Each structure stands twice: as structure tokens, then as C-alpha cells.
Amino acid sequence: MPLISPKSAPETRRSDHTDTYHGEIIADPYRWLEDAGSAETKAFVDAQNELTRTVLDALPEREQLRSRLTELWDYARRGGVWQEGGKYFQMRNSGLQSQFVLYVMDSPADEGRILLDPNSFSDDGTVSLGELAISQDGSKLAYSLSQGGSDWRDWRVRDIVSGHDLPDTVSDSKFSGAGWLPDGNSFLYGRYDRPPEGQQLSSANLNQRLYRHRIGSEQAEDELILERPDQPEWGFGGMVSEDGHYLIVNVWKGTARQNLIWVRPLEERGPFTEVVADFEASYQVIGNDGPVFYFLTDDAAPMGRLISHHLETGERREIVAESQHRLLEVLMVEGGFVLHTLADASSRLSVVDRQGQNAQPVTLPGLGTVGSLSGHTDQSEVFLVFTSFLSPAASYQLNTENGELTALWSPDLSADLSGYEVRQEFAESQDGTKVPMFIVSQSNVVLDGSNPALLYGYGGFDISLTPSFEVSRLAWLEAGGVLAVANLRGGGEYGESWHQAGMKANKQNVFDDFAACARHLAQRGYTSPQHLGIEGGSNGGLLVGATLTQHPELIGAAVGHVGVMDMLRFQKFTIGWAWVSDYGSSDNAEDFAVLRAYSPLHNLMQRAYPPTLLTTGDHDDRVVPAHSYKFAAELQHVQQGGAPILLRVQTRAGHGAGKPTKLVIEEKADVYAFLLGALR
Predict the structure, then answer these.
(1) Is the separation of the CB atoms in 285 and 330 below 8 Å?
(2) Which residues form the Peptidase S9A N-terminal domain (predicted)?
(3) What is the per-residue pLDDT for 412?
(4) 225 by DSSP, 3-state: which?
(5) Residue 313 included in any domain
(6) Torsional sign, CA 146, 147, 150, 151
(7) Phi-psi region of 179 (alpha: psi -120 to 50; beta: other; left: phi over 0)
(8) Which of 104, 120, 183, 466 has a CB 3.0–4.6 Å from the CB of 115, allowing a cystine?
(9) What is the Cα–Cα distance from 57 to 221, expressed in whole angstroms?
(10) Is-catalytic flag, 468?
(11) Helices (H), 378-506
């Protein structure tokens, strides 16, 4: 790794700006970097990118990695199959296409025809497909577009038979799907007021409203279904029950799983029945038999259970009780339910009847992850994909009557995976908690501490890290690297209690768990601190920043993607207020003390830090790029060693979703070349 002294980093202006939080004065010398559109900020980004390219382009393995990643990536991939109105749909990529393409088929294994090709949206691939929804009669497709990775969406409608778009355009939508009404002539969606000019990527998103758009009409004529100006943080997701009789509204507030459920007959305009009237637990609508609705909930069951609720009588019954494993997902099918559970972060499937009895386990291809589970309440066919660390996603069809799982399509990967193996080990955290971790390596790995290793984590928002195949990681493994994926508290692997053990005042547990995993890898001989890199994105970027400031002695390099680095101001921008449920807020004195103690930006000091690469996108309106800008500037300012501190800013890119394949390959080549250069 070419060494760069702090003096070689760009000179970045430090202001005397300060804020006072609950009596404590906090300096914020790079506040001006929050203005993403200013000439000075743009000059800062240009200077940082120039430095980063100077270092990364000089790495001898960078071009070799880019070439190898391109070869590995060039294989056909398919997502899960789903069915609507007698037609079948699937997302596919022939290999190096910038975006996945939507196909429509007459049968699940049919070759079908292209219905929507997002690669035609723009020449550079930066206009991507957001959400999509097929009408229940299979006649129309509603799909949304994202510009440069932004969370803002514009909706379009395509006639499925002709393959042509209708004139409809719906704008200013964000954090919303489309809920079709049974006749296929209108859909529900959520939208916000348009932000002031120049503030589209930074202003707070509040006061979402639920609308009904009728096909063939102008957006100005859309019917307002629901708004709550007295509750600006509430958001609304509208859907229609599969039998077409009920309008169901999921009321959400931030990223917390706790929600409200409101139901009323579809064509009525009266008040809703508040099936769930307070934000005390998570409720997910599974389906209904007339007035009897089924919910997956963690109410009085941190690992999850399935219950029924009668709309007219209010009677509730427990269908599937809480067990020792996380009940992650339930699918209602003809005569029963498919249950998807997690056992030590790996998927299990079973089928039960409508009374929750006569459980029939489904034999999966191995230890891995089930995804894209889809089906209908009146059908026995279910579709899914299965993947693991060493098996690319393959699509399957499940017959729920006999539990038989049939492969529909498997990818043809050119790389040989027979020389690798996966282990699951448990590290002991500071308070004695056992923290699981998947370790992937060559089968003949020598445990002498000399291997470059990469520890990946997230640890937040009830999100589970389960085994999945990422083709880019093969380049790391082929280079002799060890990969470790940690299942930290704050995630959802062991239910709501595991989540709560890593949120708000308990957030330090997440960082302690990650540090314990780092120590475990060194103690077992997989690697040693000077050969260990850490990586994470978004909330995982916060994890990297906190680990870098708390335990730089445990690591040899750090890579943080689109990280939340300023824990005192995150709630001021776009949807940042929604993360208060997991983090707390600096507006509260008790929360401030917790946040101040670990906020990466505010815990840097004059010392030598290991080589660090920070990445972000200039159109990221989820975690605004100012987090990475300010952290990089401060880290360069305090760096006392010779290790490089690099900031990589991708233009016309957002939080990560929809990024074109070519740009993903370029970024992965940079990351792995940086890590190999730093850790070998």
C-alpha cells in the first residue's frame, strides 16, 4: 500500500462553527460540507476523488481484480418467479447488463418475453427501476423510476399485453409501493410535498399522504385517501385484500417495526376499523378468510407468532405459537400457511394447515437463505429462491400439498467453488453473549494468522445477515482471503429481543460484538490484527466508523460505505428522523449522552489510524453524503500515521440500489485492491 502522509491529503477549510447540546459545546468545523451543491463542496469532492484515484489506480492488483470481477460477473442470473392473473413474472440479467430485466411468461419455467428493460431508461444506466406491482388481473404493470440512485420515484404504467406504456405519470413518490385495486384501473401510492428547489436530496421527508390514481387521469385529479397533518412522521402503505373486499392501510412511523393496521370495506368512505391501534408491536398482514384476518406479529412474542383477528367480533386466536426460532415470514396458501423461520441465521421452511397444525418440514438444498417467497391464498404452488455463501441464487417451485421442492432454474457459474467451505463459529462478547459468525475460506486454509481477512457486519434495524452468494466475494476468496460475516445484536437473527439489545442505550453492544468477532478471528488463527479488514454500509458504515475510533488496534484497514457518521445531526436530513427509533436523538439529553459517546465524527483524536476507504454517492438522499465528507475531512486532519485516508465519491449514484453493473465492478475492484494492498 503506497503510504500517504496527512500533509498529502487535500487542505480542507476548518470553520469555527459550534453547537450547544444540553450545555455542552460541540465543534462542527466542516458544517459547510452539508451544502452539497456549493462550489466549495464540489471542489472538496473533486480534490478527494483525485487523491483517491491517484492511490487506487497505482495499486498493482487493481486492474487484475477488475478484469477478474468482470469475468466472474458474466453469468446469467434470475430472481424469484411470481404469478398474477394467470401470468408469471421474473427479473433476469444475462450477465453484465447494467440493470435486471423484467420478463413475463406463460408458465414458471417458460423463456417468456421481455416486458420491461430498465437498461433502456438511460445511456449510462443511472436511471434504474425502483418498485413494481402487477395488477391482480395481470393486465397492467405499475413501475417506478429512480434518477441517480435517489429515493424519489416517478411512477409509470405499462400495458402487459401490448408492452407499451400508457400516458400516466405520477411524481413525488417516496418510500411507497403501488397497491392495485381489483379492476386493474387504479392503484394506491404514497407521496410527499415536493421539496424546495435545490433541497430535493437533503430536506426532511414528512407528511406523507396516501392517494388513489385512476388510469388515464392526471395526477392533479388523484383522490386523497388518507392524510394526518397532526402526525407528520406517519407514513401510509395501502393495499387491497386478495379477495378484493377490503382496503388495508399499514401505518408506519420511522424504521421501527411497530405499526398500526387499519381496515375498511374497499368502496366505503367511512372510518377505518383500527385493528392495531397503537405503536407497541409489529403486525404484518398475511391474508384473510372473509372477516378473519391473519397477522404475523411479535406482540408478546419476540421471536414471532401467527394470530387471527375477527374484524366483526374482535376475537383473537393464536394459530402458530412462538418457538425458539425467529418466525421471519408467513405465506398464506390454499388450506394453510408456509412458515419461514431462522435457526442460527439460516432458513427453515415448513407447511401447516389453517389451524397451525400438522407441520410438514420442507427439505431445502442446504444451509442457506430462502428469498422471494410468493404465492396466493387459493393456490398450492409457491415460488422461492435459495442461496448460500457458495451457491448462487436458484429458483424453485414448492408444492404445498406434498412438500415437494422442484428446481425451476439454476445458474451456470464458471468458477469452481469446490475448494471452499463455510463454518459457523460463536464469539464471546464483552458481556458474555455468544455472537454467531459465518466464516468462508479455502478448505485448506492455514490457521497461522497470516491470511488477509475481511469482517463484515451491520447490526441494526432488525435486519438479519443470512447466507447469500455475492459473486464479487469470489475474487477475495481466490486471492487467499478469508470472509467473515457477523450476526450482531441490533439485527433480527434472534427476534425482537436481539434487536433491542443493540439499539438506543444498548447500541454499544453492537460495537462490542464486532470487536469480539475480530478478536475471535485472530485468536483462532484465521488472521491477525494487521491482516484484518472491516467493512459495512449505511448502519454498517456507522459500525465501521465506531470500530475505527474505539478499536483501531484490532484492525489493519477499514472500508465504510455510505455510513452514518454524525450521530448528532443525522435526524436533520431526508428520512434520518425515522432512525430515531433505533438510535435515539441528540435533541433528548439522555440520548445525546449515548450518541456523543460513540458518534464516529465526534470521537476521532490525534493518533495513527489504519488505512481507511470511505465511499458515498453524491445523490444519496438516504444517508446524505455530508456524513462521509465530514468524517473523511476530520480523519485526514487528525491522522498522525502514514496510512492513507481516502474518500471515494461516485457521481450520479445514491445509497446503492440501482447502481449499474459496470460501476459496481469498478467499486468492488477498488475496495478489494485497497484491502489486499493494506493487509498483505
Answers:
(1) no
(2) 10-407
(3) 93
(4) strand
(5) no
(6) negative
(7) beta
(8) 104
(9) 53
(10) no
(11) 472-478, 495-500
Residue type, 324: Q
Structure confidence at residue 6 (pLDDT): 44
Which residue intervals of 359-459 are DSSP H helices? Answer: none
pTM: 0.93
| DSSP string for 40-76 | HHHHHHHHHHHHHHHHHTT-TTHHHHHHHHHHHH-S-
Specify the pLDDT at position 501. 98
Per-10-residue mean pLDDT for the chain, 680 residues long? 57 97 98 94 96 95 96 97 97 95 96 96 83 96 88 94 96 94 96 80 83 97 96 96 97 91 92 95 97 97 98 96 98 98 98 97 96 97 98 97 96 93 98 98 96 98 97 96 98 97 98 98 98 98 98 98 97 89 97 98 98 89 90 97 94 67 95 97
- Cβ proximity of 200 and 152 under 8 Å: yes
| pLDDT tens per residue across span 520-547 | 999 999 999 999 999 999 999 999 999 9
**Is there a catalytic annotation at residue 655?**
yes
Given the residues 340, 561, 602, 655, select the one marked as catalytic.
Answer: 655
Q: Which residue has the cell 465492478?
A: 665
CA distance 674 to 370: 33
Count of domains for the chain: 1
Angle between helix axes 661-679 and 39-56 (nearest 10 degrees) is 60
Burial level of 242, CB count in 10 A (0-12/13-18/19+)? middle
Catalytic residue among 538, 585, 586, 628: 538
Which residue is catalytic, options 168, 172, 582, 620? 620
Residue 347 placed within a domain:
no
The whole-number pLDDT of residue 268 equals 87
User: Which of 166, 163, 161, 207 has the alpha carbon at shortest distance from 186?
Assistant: 166
Residue 336 lies in a domain: no
Give residue 201's pLDDT: 65
Look at residue 655 in the predicted model and tell me its pLDDT: 59
Q: What is the dihedral of CA 471, 475, 481, 483, to 10 degrees?
A: -10
Which residues fall within 8 angstroms of residue 98, CB to CB, at 6 or more apart? Answer: 118, 119, 125, 660, 661, 662
Q: Which residue from 374, 331, 330, 349 is spatially nearest to 89, judged by alpha carbons?
A: 374
What CATH number corresponds to the domain at position 474?
3.40.50.1820
Taking only Cα atoms into account, the Rg of the chain, rounded to an integer number of angstroms, comes to 25
Cell of 545: 466508523
Main-chain dihedrals φ then ψ at residue 478, nearest 5 degrees? -60, -30
Can 462 be counted among the known catalytic residues? no
Terminal CA-to-CA distance of the chain, rounded, Å? 9
What type of residue sits at position 108? P
- The phi and psi torsions of 360 (rounded to 5 degrees) equal -125, 110
541 and 534 in contact (C-beta within 8 Å)? no
572 within some domain:
yes
Q: Of 515, 466, 465, which Cα lies nearest the Cα of 490?
A: 465
Range of the domain at 622: 40-71+419-679
What b/e readout covers 81-111, taking b as 16+ CB neighbours within 10 angstroms? bbbbeebbbbbbbeeebbbbbbbbbeebeee
